[in-house]
Design brief:
The chain has 2 helices and no strands. It is mainly α and about 50 residues long.
Length: about 50
Amino acid sequence: MARPIAETPVLRGKEARQFLAKMKELKFISKEELEKQKRTFEYFKSIADFEV
């Protein structure tokens, strides 16, 4: 049997401010990296076997 999932801790003070600042940062990737990620996604999508 699976163990219960623990509650996610609440961020407060300095940690909360740091988290929000990191979430606002935009991270740009190269076109080559984007294409690599798209190919990887398409590969996993092609082998996925989900009943819908």
